Amino acid sequence: MLGIYYCTWILVLPFVDKENILQMFFPPKVFAVAFPLAIGVIGLLVIGLFTSVTMSQRKGVNVSKKS
């Protein structure tokens, strides 16, 4: 459902007049780029954090096994 809303916002709204009532159901077009960009950056940060925590825990386990 969110995909349909976003596709309508990106693909249809540029061809609709600014005075049309459909325009009031969507945020400004600047957010069409800002929302996916923010979600992507946050997603990459979470993946990087998970990877670094996992690697540091795994490194600690390997050191203790060698001793």
UniProtKB/TrEMBL annotation:
Its main location: endoplasmic reticulum. Regulatory subunit of the dolichol-phosphate mannose (DPM) synthase complex; essential for the ER localization. The keyword Membrane applies. Belongs to the DPM2 family. Component of the dolichol-phosphate mannose (DPM) synthase complex composed of DPM1, DPM2 and DPM3; in the complex interacts directly with DPM3. Component of the glycosylphosphatidylinositol-N-acetylglucosaminyltransferase (GPI-GnT) complex composed at least by PIGA, PIGC, PIGH, PIGP, PIGQ, PIGY and DPM2. Interacts with PIGA, PIGC and PIGQ. It comes from the Eukaryota. GO terms for cellular component: dolichol-phosphate-mannose synthase complex; endoplasmic reticulum membrane. It is found in: Endoplasmic reticulum membrane. This is Dolichol phosphate-mannose biosynthesis regulatory protein.
